[in-house]
Amino acid sequence: MTPQRERRGAELVAKYPEARSALVPFLQYCQAEDGYVTDQAIADAAELVGITPAEVESTASFYSLLFRHPIGKHVIQVCRTLGCMLGGADELREHIRTRLGVENLETTADGAITYEEVECLAACDRAPVLQHNLEFVYNVTPEKFDSLLETWRRESPAAALPAE
Amino acid sequence: MPIEPVLTKGFGSLDLTDLAVYRSVGGFAALTKALREMTPDGVVAEVMASNLRGRGGAGFPTGKKWSFLPKDGRPRYLVCNSDEAEAGTFKDRMLLENSPFNLIEGLVISAYAVNAKRVFIYIRGEFLAGYRIFQKALAQAYDAGLVGADILGSGYSVEIVPHRGAGAYICGEETAQLNSLEGKRGEPRLKPPFPANAGLYGMPTVVNNVETLMYVPHIIERGAKWFASIGAEKSPGPKVISVSGHVMRPGNYEVPLGIPMRELVMELAGGLRPGRRVKAIQPGGGSSAAIFEEDLDVACDFDSLAAKGTMLGSGAVTVMDDTACMVRCALTINRFFETESCGQCTPCREGGQWVHRMVARLEAGEGSESDLKILTTINRTITGTNLCVLGDSIMPFLSSVYKHFPEEFHDHVRLAGCPLHARSESAA
Ligand SMILES: Cc1cc2nc3c(=O)[nH]c(=O)nc-3n(C[C@H](O)[C@H](O)[C@H](O)COP(=O)(O)O)c2cc1C
Ligand code: SF4
Ligand code: FES
B133 CB contacts (<8 Å, ≥6 apart)? Predict the structure, then answer.
């Protein structure tokens, strides 16, 4: 474990009565550093909270915001549940898939953008809704998406899924 | 019957994320009153007398829940459920982002009432902005001596620990949330034991929703009588209801419980688009059975909606007008439950997947009459046979719209597609 990671791990463990509670926050931290949850992060987490790597793996696999494989610098998560569907999310998803040339949970050929269809994001009054790197974008039209996409492509965010 | 807003007062005009502003409108007066003038049991009694019922979905009386904790000297925990992921619900996120100090005040008073020394607030992973706002407010509250050691010189100390989720609707279920907080897979536990006896780390634990806990300071400040005098007799008080779908002014409305659905949808939320009619409404999130145009006069409270065979749930009203295809609406709901099942119970995991695939077939124009025949019987196999309520949430909406609009389902088979509009290829 890097000294920095060790320090952050100790801080997280100190927040809870039992070390294992720091597991997911620690994996979130590692994911923000490395871009995804690497094998090294699994090993580090196992060491930090005192369980086996297999147990870490099993826990990590439960959570949709933890990725065990490389993802893009941009993660676009589009809501597909009822409120957004009524607001045009089916058409929006079709537009985005065509535009990016990907299916659900795929990353663009250049590795920059990961696309995911997700369930209700708790913003149904401003449907359709998406999150770009966990930031909300409301009332998304195909045109609005295209112009945002150009902006995002020019940016290079530090982490697609920030831990804090 | 409009009321003066309570939790949402000042939203849109005041920056309540600023401690000084929150204080200028009377913030933390209730905390001072509770810590200086009331015993913990006195706070529990006041909340019990108000008949505040949980705003997270089940409507369980909050004071009663608090009184269940065994007095055996073990450490106790308060967990605030800010995982809000029920389809159609968006009130807790708004409350968290706009009024973090009201929440903090509610957390400290409630922790004092149940004698907890540590509070965890479980914030949905997708609410990164809300998490940051809460963190910032919490740091200010610590600096001001409103959280931490010896609060306001009362001798009472409590720590508040924000914890971010990592993507999983099921972690809103209280026992799944406790497992998740313990660093495990967010799988619901078998009950009993209930969290009151064996909750977080096996200790006595209270889990309450964000909105529930935010009403607590107002009850302490203005009294149980004031709260109980608002709204329906058996479901008193104001409540924030999220209205979305085919209405002109979707948004959150803080209303007295018991408000007629017609007033909420047709007046407050601005009604439908010109020329449109109500086809179906989910009154309590994705888990709830639909009500229909003829039901618009139902009162929005726990008991009145239960009497109609549905529920108030978390207070999420999704309106579908006569342009909406019921099969496609059901598809989004059944896809949701297939995706979000934790997989422990066979009827929920396999049944949920099967139902979703069948509705997807129907929607794509590839369904058959035998699919529809099974639809009338599968409810018995899936509902009531699972560990947690998610499994029982798979069928209510689908069954209710199939029962009300059977011809629309049969037409999808007969015409090999949607009778309402040309099908979009992407819907599955
Ligand atoms: C599948 C499922 C998801 C739930 N999601 C939430 C949620 O996001 N927020 C919430 O407060 N309660 C949720 N609940 C209800 C909780 O289990 C629990 O009843 C509630 O947090 C108690 O708080 P209250 O008494 O203040 O309502 C959910 C229940 C189930 C079965
Ligand atoms: S009912 Fe579904 S979500 Fe609930 S415990 Fe069983 S499998 Fe998991
Ligand atoms: S349905 Fe998309 S945010 Fe709720």
Answer: B17, B96, B97, B100
pLDDT by residue for chain A (164 residues), tens only, comes to: 999 999 999 999 999 999 999 999 999 999 999 999 999 999 999 999 999 999 999 999 999 999 999 999 999 999 999 999 999 999 999 999 999 999 999 999 999 999 999 999 999 999 999 999 999 999 999 999 999 999 999 999 999 999 99
Q: Which of B173, B314, B383 to mutate to test the pocket of ligand 1 (most atoms within 8 A of CB)?
A: B173
A153 contacts: CB under 8 Å, gap ≥ 6? A112
Chain-chain contact of A22 with B328 (C-beta, under 8 angstroms): no
Chosen for mutation from B90, B96, B326, B331 (greatest number of chain A CBs closer than 10 Å) is B90
- A25, B90: Cβ pair inside 8 Å? no
Which protein residue has the closest C-alpha to ligand 1 atom 2?
Answer: B173
Q: Is B423 on the interface with A (CB under 8 A)?
A: no
- Kind of pairing, strands B278-282 and B316-321? antiparallel
Say if the Cβ atoms of B90 and A21 lie within 8 Å.
no
What are the distances in angstroms from CA B351 to CA A50, A118, B334?
37, 21, 10
- CATH class of the domain at A3-62: mainly alpha
Integer CA distances (angstroms), A53 to A41, A61, A67, B71, B178, in order: 10, 12, 16, 39, 22
Return the residue whose CA atom lies nearest to atom 1 of ligand 2. B391
Domain range for residue B62? 19-228
Q: Answer for the pair B309, B289: CB distance below 8 angstroms, yes or no.
A: yes
Q: Does B132 touch chain A (CB under 8 A)?
A: yes
Tell me the three-class secondary structure of A130-146, residue by residue: EEECCEEECCCCHHHHH
Residue B11: inside a domain, yes or no?
A: no
Tell me: do B149 and B88 sit in the same domain: yes
* Residue B248 shares a structural domain with residue B223: no
What is the CATH number for B137? 3.40.50.11540
- Say yes or no: B179 and B242 in one domain: no
Query: Closest Cα of chain A to B119: distance in Å?
Result: 11
pTM beyond 0.90: yes
Is the confidence metric ipTM above 0.95 for this complex? yes
Q: How far is the CA of B61 from the centre of ligand 1 (A)?
A: 13
| Partner A contacted by B318 (CB < 8 A) | yes
